[in-house]
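C-alpha cells help. Our protein:
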Amino acid sequence: MDRKSGKIELIGTQKLKINSELYKVVDFLNKNLKEHHLMFGLSKKEDTMTISVYEVE
C-alpha cells in the first residue's frame, strides 16, 4: 500500500505590500502546480502580506 507521508517543507517566503489580487495569484499557483508537489500560502499582518512556498510530499 502506498501511503503519503504528508510532509510539508517551507521553501521560502516573501513579504509584499498589501494587494488584493495576490489571493488570485496564490489560487492560480496552487491549482496549476499541485502535481509538482508545490503549495502556496498567503498571510496578512498589519500592512504587509507574506507569500509562502511549500514542497509537499
Helices lie at 22-33.
